[in-house]
## 1
Amino acid sequence: MSTFFSDWYYLSIRNIKQIWRPLMALIPSLFIPLFFFTVNSASLQAFSQVKDFPAGISYRDFIAPVAIFTAIFFSSGNAGIEMVQDISNGYLKKLLIMPINRLAIVLARLTEVAFLSIFQGTVVLVPLLLIGVKIHSGILGIFTMFLMLILFAMAWSCIGIITALRTQNARLVQSLFILVFPFLNVTTSAAPKNLLHGWFAVAASINPVTFIIEGVRALVLYGWGSPAILQGFLVAITFFVVMVTLTVMSFKSSMK
Amino acid sequence: MSQEKQIIQVRDLRKTYAGGTEAVRGVTFDVKEGEFFGFLGPNGAGKSTTINMLVNLVKKTSGSITIDGLDLDRNAIDIYRKIGFAMQEIGLDETATAREMLQLHGRLYHMPKDKIEEQISKLLKLVELEKVADRYASTYSGGMRRRFDLALSLIHEPRILFLDEPTQGLDPHARQMIWNHLRDLNKLGMTVFLTTHFMDEAEQLCDRIAIMDKGQIVTEGTVDELLTKHDAKNLEEVFLKTTGSNLADEEVNLNAPDPYARRR
């Protein structure tokens, strides 16, 4: 194993261990998506009877992809918080005076996000499958869905990492959590595109999260035929490339 | 201290922070291999900035730093293999145990597994933390954290150990324990570069001392040389004669760079 890959591997293992310590910290990000899914699918089930709602689809199945997405979205902020902790307690400095590849430090944080996304997504997906939500694209669709969500989660986590590197301010990094709400709610998460109107419809149509939710929803509800899958992937990949590039640049400039 | 090789060579080192504060203003000195070198100065004198430049955590504005014959600008990675640094702020991963951190650092220095385990046993014994090696760092007392940080900086058997105020905030017992460890390491041939503002610490440990004030070295030599040169009874008197009054120190502190300035 080259030194770059071994640095990346060992730092990733260290970061992944951090996730579980303490284990209790993971519970809210697992509980909240399932809570909203349960409440919304029960209280808004009549919404599926509205004219122009996709035919033959229950509201529960319609919002199931949102629950998976939300679990991953909520947890993608951890990387920034952990990065700011490493900066503020001086641990990052320790890593910087070791003969390790700088890029490995950033990639190890993103690997942690990917690992956490798989874990959180699975923990939410399993109960959905148990209550009868069907993934129409099959096992391969689940892998595709996770890949899209992981790319998005890693890209989103870069916002926290960049803020940590630039400000070294824990409160500011933690407060980035509030960004989740507009990005998650001004989308097609609660209603299909054709039922949105006015400014909300415009904002949702340009929100990258809409493309991810639509891509995941297509895989869950319709199988492989929808162009939304490709669109979701393109948005996730573009967002990932842009954000990782910015993060690496930020990391290099913060070392000067 | 038996050899005369200069293991650290610093020439006209300067650091000017954004905003114009000159933290270090043309510092030149050498440290011999196997030497215990003390860097003294009041708060804000530029000691920490200098040591951070020596380990490449702060980029110098100008000047040159050579460590064991290697230029820091061109050979940073090779130099990192030769140095250990116990920082003033300690810097531990609170969510890991001492053993886990030592293992990780050993791996990141690309050491063989059996060597890592051998070093872990040796270092935990050295700093007397064997019994708490599997407890999270967040549970350690101040003295334990300092001792563990020292062990962490030694995992790869560095040739040069940089220490920035290593006994800051410690009780006399813990301080004495750290001093004993440092003496032992130095006796084994390790070069030690220590910044401190404790006169007794410098007097007890250091072969040679440089006193820094307002970003410059104001005097340098062995304790005996300094006492003679400044006609002083003890190191504290040398310090006061060369660095001025406490009021002056406060003025220097007010001029120190504000890391949050650009974020406000």
Note: The mean pLDDT of chain A is 91.
## 2
Amino acid sequence: MIKVMLQKKLQDRVKELLQNGTVSLFIGYEQGPGFVYVSPCFVRDESGAERLVLNQFCSNNLAGYIHEYNAYNRRIGICVKGCDARALVELVKQNQITREDLFVVGVPCTGRIDISKLREEYGPKLEEIKGISETERSFLLETVRGTKEIYKEKIVFDKCLSCTHPEGFEYDILLDELKIPEFGSADPVQKRVEEMESLSTAEKNEVWCSYLSQCILCRACQKACYACYCPECIFDKAYPRWFSKISTTAQKRLYHLIRAYHLAGRCVDCGECERACPAGIPLRLLNKKIEKETKKLFNNREAGINQEGVLPLNTFDIDDPDFFL
Amino acid sequence: MNNSIYLPHIATIKNVVEETFDTSTFTVAFDNKNIQSSFSYLPGQFVEVTVFGKGECPISITSTPVKNEYLELCVRSSGKVTDALHDLDVGGKIGIRGPYGNSFPLEEVRGKDIILISGGIGLAPLRSLLNYFLYNEDRYGKIELFYGAKTSQDLCFRREYDLWGAHENTAVHITVDKATEQWNGRVGFVTELLKEAAPSPRNRFAFVCGPPIMIKITAKILAEMGYEDSRIITTLERKMKCGVGKCMRCSIGEKLVCQDGPVFSLRELNEITDEFSR
Amino acid sequence: MDNREKGVERKIITRDDLSKWLEKIKGHFDLYAPVRSTVVNFGKIERVDKICLDFMNTFLPPKVLFFPQTEELFSYARDSEGIEVKRAEDLIKERVLFGIRPCDARALSILDMVFGGEIQDSHYIEKRRNTVLIGIGCTESLNTCFCSTFGIDPLSGEGTDIFLIDNGGYFTIKEVNTQRGRSLIDLGNTFIKTEKVDHREEAGSVTVPINIASITGNMEKVQEDFWNNTSDPCLSCGICTYVCPTCHCFDVEDEEKKNGGVRFRTWDFCMSKDFARMASGENPRISKGERYRHRYFHKFDYFPKKYAVVGCVGCGRCISYCPVNMDIRKVLERIRENIQK
């Protein structure tokens, strides 16, 4: 019931923002091909505000669209949960947009549902799910076959289990009080990083090559990532052709490693890369490792948490150990 | 199992003429004499030229199918493959696949008068057409060439203007956009030349080839002069890869430039349900 | 609805015997069948017990076996004389592809028109010629399936050599369509029985019937801003193109190695910004709306104009795998509404 109120509140606010010209575009969520399938929604006039939804399936990080739309829209309104707001902090810090050009609507979030986990818990026929409500510990799915209760911990994204919000981020509108959800178990990714670290190089290579053999270089991870805003990706540059377009496991490994390195110090662990990947590749694992190493080397800085601070890979300090770069 | 539509034949560069600072005409011949003698093409068609290790690019054939001992390809240095091609000298080896694409409508213009309007390197495919007309003069009417380039340094095929103009029924009008010391001739846009001459559309076809903006403006002027869109013929350029209609890179509306083009009449272009009717 | 026919004589093979038959086939041919890892894909079978029959459809469509994601076209070698070019040898042993669905079988006949025709792509054609297709009908459908929209019968083996229906404990051999299919049946004659069975044939149903006929040929009537607005959520990634059984755009590149090199082709997607960009920098489809429009026109307008068949088979993969849940059926419905206005 709270969710329905928030959804209505959002719709009303967005209507106002468009009516009084505060924003020329608002990016939110709308229902896709089924209740559990949500699509990003682009609203440009008041009548469109009714399409907006807000529920536990709204998982996309909408900050990824900003670089594409900020050239032709002033201001851009966007609704974000805590993890997405970290991307906004970074975008401003990386000079991709000014804070004034954004109108940020904060959305309280107590965990978003991972569709692949839901499929395992509920079964393949997700089209049966027509509604949702929640208690403190569970989601109550309203289905054509009655209500099904599932513990939140079982179907929220791994990242939600260890939720982090940016500090002191000022939302233009906050739909409701922000709470950091608490779960019994923690995000398993840190443990998985440690497990990988305990393997030999040859073993690591084998594990990653087996994951990456399924990669089809669709570039969805890149396109879903807020931080991949290069107008021409180095993998696409034709002349000079820095990287072959050949689709071998070695080339896929190279692509993912280079993308992970390009994200060092900037990845906010929104998990969109892994969610977007159609082949089920555990990309967060790779990015988490890079994050761990970056933190060690660059004074524990975590992307998107503080609004101050420098970008590790973009800043040169006279005391840097390398005498160039 | 040696057949593949993607396999190029090896050819050797026999001669290189520098037309401008970035454009050269390469005379090439297939190493295999049988392939060379049986290679038959018509003006308007193109070949896919391979610089091994760099890639392939489509180049319109600028020679005319009269002598089949060689091909002439006029190439501007504008990307990975064309830059590499310019690094090759006489004796250098390239690959050639083709000929591909459709040709200029030679039958339709029999007995008609012809105007050719061109800018910069756009003269290359029209040269093939013009030389074909001149070689078969009795089949065609009056021929008028309007050709312009940015400066006199950018004019291509200068060595041929007098040869063309020497033909009784051929008039050659050359202009440059910007005057420089070396140039004593006409200054102004080629479209101005066209407007002044104002050749009547009666019994006449117009062939236009050049940068997209020039084609647009010229087409407009011709329309104002009363030319039907079926009698304004142009060649289109699109990014190409396979050249044989499989990879879809050169698609324009429902047509493929490598198969249904590169020669299109304005009427055909207007009918194509292209991106927002551009 | 139960349209079980009681006591009908059919050629059947039990699940256990199917494994034995496939084992025997594997002795003579390279066998490709669905295999599950993080996703289900067609893979070369070393062990028949690795075959996954508990699947609706594979992640990558069967096109990957005839038009591989990366394929060498030829190699070239430099020596003192010059350059020699050698066509890539496709190591094509005779193959059997087991487990193809009716939508994908139709998609292969669509690709046959693209890679065949007046100019024959021998790389694709030879692989097609050397592959026998054993199809399995769909007695269930996914929420995203809409093959019937295109006249595809989920219980018909059109385009396959042999067509099976899964009846639980056993498979019915519903169709044997070719000589090659008959040879394979002969190979399995110790396993294939003729029995009176309660025959179940229920097709999975299409969830959203779409009137395709009203769309083809009328798509120019759709307003320009329709495409810009509809394509807003699109990420311009390559998923829908790569998982589509009829999409076939590719890139061609050279790669220099020592004293020579190769030319290969590789899948590409027209949704990418620089797909049509020319060396001059000019880009005829620079906006996302134009590229999105091109995709729909190619499938539902250009394809029918050129080949008299729509370039979509309703497999629903693009809907399942799209990271932003774009739905081709919804877009088609909105196109239809837009045309009627």
Note: Chain C touches chain A at residues 37-39, 41, 59-60, 69-70, 143-144, 229, 232-233, 235-239, 242-243, 251, 253, 255, 264, 266-267, 269, 272, 274, 279, 288, 319, 321, 323-327, 329-330 (CB under 8 Å).
